[in-house]
Amino acid sequence: MNTSELGLPMAVPTQDLPARVRIHEVGARDGLQNEKDAVPTEVKAEFIRRLADAGLTTIEATSFVHPKWVPQLADAEQLYPQVADLPVALPVLVPNERGLERALALGARHVAVFASATESFAKANLNRTVDESLAMFEPVVRRAKDAGSVVRGYVSMCFGDPWEGPVPVHQVVRVCKALRDLGCDELSLGDTIGVATPGHVQALLAELNEEGVPTSALGVHFHDTYGQALSNTLAALQHGVTTVDASAGGLGGCPYAKSATGNLATEDLVWMLQGLGIDTGVDLGQLTATSVWMAGQLGRPSPSRTVNALGKTAQSHQE
Ligand code: HMG
Ligand code: MG
After folding, report:
1. Which domains does the chain have, with CATH numbers?
2. Which amino acid residue places its CA nearest to atom 13 of ligand 1?
3. How many helices (H) and strands (E) in the chain?
């Protein structure tokens, strides 16, 4: 399958949207952390190489968390060196100093801490209160910056929480500001369980700006549980956001939030962005072929609408 055999949307640029979007690809981390069966390290490495070949420039590779908490990513030490020479940024998740030391020892220079806007998820995901987790991140961010790393700060449950329900905007803003004060270069606003809607997204972004967090420091991270991820992304683009997280083939979920399903599929995102005339640098055909290959490795079809539509188009062209 190559691009020339695939359909592409007609590009109809729309005013007041960014000219370029950086996709922060999370398939190998957020996508695979929840898999029931072990995915061989070599398959993960091949997945990451294919994503880089498809033009993705930021590919979250793995997490240096406790292996008992996320067994699927327990091979971080084996995986990272297999992809370290790729000419792309390879962020990794580090919850604490132990995780940071493991990552730095392998030469990682893009790391991410991950906070929660709610107490329930902070406890479930990090075994800490929100403030205890921020205290845990303080030396991580400081030492990472001293080592010359770029540091991302995730905030989970920005819109709703499976235990606490809707999450007030000011609660999210407090955690975002705390992460900025620690020195995080970029924040990623996580809709962990996919309940956000476009107005809510714009209200949070506006409040963050109001409180001194510039849009240029913000990325969005939507899970697609209720089919809102693309609408929410468009709302964020309209606000000026240019960093969007997505997962190839729509893989994903969070082991510590049972109602979380897959992330926004990178192919669905690229289809929309190409249609809006927004540059991503991604070859949609190669990316789709990668997700079809990965679906074969995992033994189940991709949930991405675009992967399925383009896969069928490619098949009918072969017949
Ligand atoms: P804890 O049990 O409180 O750990 O877990 P601890 O600090 O008490 O340490 C206990 C033992 O674990 C010690 O060993 C440590 O050395 C070891 P012992 O002395 O007993 O032999 N340990 C480690 N070993 C290896 N690597 C480490 C590490 N840290 C401690 N990094 C901890 C606290 C943070 C470690 C645990 O809660 C954890 O690993 N959590 C990770 C959960 C996770 O990865 N969740 C998924 C990612 S978040 C997400 O998906 C959301 C996101 O996509 C955005 C969105 O959608 O919202 C980002
Ligand atoms: Mg996530």
Report:
1. 3-318 (3.20.20.70)
2. 66
3. 11, 11
